[in-house]
Amino acid sequence: MKQYNNYKVSRAFGLQKSIIVLFLLGLSVFIHAQDSTYARSIMLKLGSTEFGGRGYVDNGNMIAADFVRSEFQRDGLKFFGNDYYQKFTIPINTIQDVQYLKIDNKALVAGVDYYIHNASKSLKGKYELLFVDDSLFVNDMEYMLSILNKQNLKKTVLVFSKANRDIQFGFKAKVAGLIFRHDNLPPWGFSHAQQPVDYAIIDILKSKLSSNSKEININFKAKYYKEYPTQNIVGYVVGKKEPDSFIVIGAHYDHMGKMGHDIYFPGGNDNASGSSMMLNFARYYSKAEHQPDYSIVFISFTGEEVGLLGSMYYVKHPLFDLKKIKFMMNLDMVGTGSKGIVVVNGSVFKNEFERITKLNKEHNYLARVKVRGESCNSDHCPFYMSGVPSFFIYTTGDEYKEYHSPRDKSEDVPLTNYNGVFSLVRDFIDGF
């Protein structure tokens, strides 16, 4: 009888314990679900038409900055100086208005059939198309360019089959424009947008421009700003043990913006995803129960797509001593994750990389944590070059491939393992 009663008590206790475990697991899932829900809401906002691609046409960059600041305010983050904004100006060329582009009177669709490069000069009118044999440039590019440079090409648009940077941005002749044909449109970019060229640069699908085409009729307007006002947004949570030592979590909020008033680049994965995770961390650490031992600074960078301008400006004008930064974590394109993450600078800061891989093995957050060496491909780079230990983390996976296109929409980004990345980075930060 005694053994039976003990069995009942033990069984009842085990049942209660199971219920508690299930409750805690459910609570954990609920918390993570809330993180994902918040992330998606942030991404949808940043990727909406209202924000216009967070670039330099129709004030998209400032609209996005105001939104990020409002999130910092809502979380009660502190700021350095008088405001969350760190203001400065940049030179930038923009494609303000796109009216039409026709090949032999057949209209092409902007953003689908062609891109006008941000380094372009305004162009309006009808121009002869002259197809250039790219193979002639293989052996002696300078010689072939010298021949073209001697010709009068003011009413001519040259057509190339291959994009070569020396030709794209270094053409010397007085030409109306250069066209580069592609099987698929390349990512739209800001190369040389700070120092625009004196002609139009256009990327067009090969299927829309045959070798028999004779004429292009085009009308678009570019505008160059010598000093375009922009800003980083900076807030922080005070550490409870060492408030004068800092961890930095950064992500760029800017994207490609607009090509004219109608074509915009939402920047869902790049980088509404990273911005949402940075804001998720701000919300998480701003809660009293999660107050970190060290102060955590959250920096939302501008101008990354133009050439890391926001992060470069910050390290040249830091709001506190960079030597007080224990570590900088940069989040850029974290919207996938079926194949895990890549850690740029992982082979440089080996102890930190070993720690993050150990945490992943212990908790099985991600399929893989892949090491990569130094690479100046995002906003961690100016910090790293200034002596600040730093990682740049991005996710990998074949489930989503859009990049610098109008199709990179926030609602389509899968967020495959968003919670796993968040949890791993959180544990890594808490381990300092």
Shape: elongated
Content of β-strand? 25-35%
According to CATH, the homologous superfamily of the largest domain is Zn peptidases
Task: Spell out the helices and strands N to C.
Answer: HHEEEEHHEHEEEEEEHEHHEEHEHEH
- Structural class by secondary-structure content: alpha/beta
Total number of domains: 2
The appropriate CATH architecture of the largest domain is 3-Layer(aba) Sandwich
Taking the sheet with the most strands, its summary is:
14 strands, mixed
Q: So how many helices?
A: 11
User: C-alpha Rg, in Å?
Assistant: 26 Å
Number of E-state strands: 16
Give the CATH class of the largest domain: Alpha Beta
Helix content: 25-40%
Taking the alpha carbons of the first and last residues, their distance comes to 55 Å
On the 0-100 scale, what is the average pLDDT? 91
Oligomer: single chain
Topology:
Blueprint: H1 2-46, H2 60-74, E1 85-103, E2 106-107, E3 114-116, E4 123-131, H3 136-139, H4 141-149, E5 153-160, H5 165-170, E6 175-182, E7 200-205, E8 215-237, E9 242-252, E10 257-259, E11 263-265, H6 268-285, E12 294-301, H7 304-307, H8 309-316, E13 325-331, E14 341-344, H9 350-363, E15 369-372, H10 380-385, E16 390-395, H11 418-430
Parallel strand pairs: 4-5, 5-6, 6-7, 9-12, 9-13, 13-16, 14-15
Antiparallel strand pairs: 1-2, 1-8, 3-7, 4-8, 8-12, 10-11, 14-16
Helix pairs in contact: 1-6, 9-11
